[in-house]
């Protein structure tokens, strides 16, 4: 299974628009959501390009976290290994989505789990 940049952008959009809001709004500060609104984007399409925020959920003092499509693509194989070892039902959801060639169908919870893992190395919320 290989995650493309376009897949990562779709998953990032799902995370931002519905997956991470329940904890991001409560436990994070200095949230910056980046997008292509000031440029033509990719093929003229408006896209999210990343999220940066501060949180003390894993550290005594607030630490800075950053997620971009490029980071998502790079770390995806390790994320899938994490799911295979710790969250088999989520691993199965991702495997089915890849086999159906339908990552756009991943739900907000799947996007949230990936986003949390990218930031914290584990699922902290829910």
Number of helices: 5
Write out the strand line-up for the largest beta sheet, numbering strands in chain order: 1-2-3
- Termini separation comes to 26 Å
**Percent of residues in helical segments?**
40-55%
Please describe the topology of this protein.
Blueprint: H1 5-19, H2 21-27, E1 28-35, E2 48-55, E3 63-67, H3 69-86, H4 88-99, H5 108-120
Antiparallel strand pairs: 1-2, 2-3
Helix pairs in contact: 1-3, 1-5, 3-4, 3-5
Could you explain how this protein is built, in words?
With 126 residues, this protein is of the alpha+beta class. It has one domain. It has five helices and three strands; from the N terminus they run ααβββααα. It has helices at residues 5-19, 21-27, 69-86, 88-99, 108-120, and strands at residues 28-35, 48-55, 63-67. It has a three-stranded antiparallel β-sheet with strand order 1-2-3. Strand 2 (48-55) and strand 3 (63-67) form a beta hairpin. The protein is globular, with a radius of gyration of 14 Å. 23% of the residues are buried. The mean pLDDT is 84.
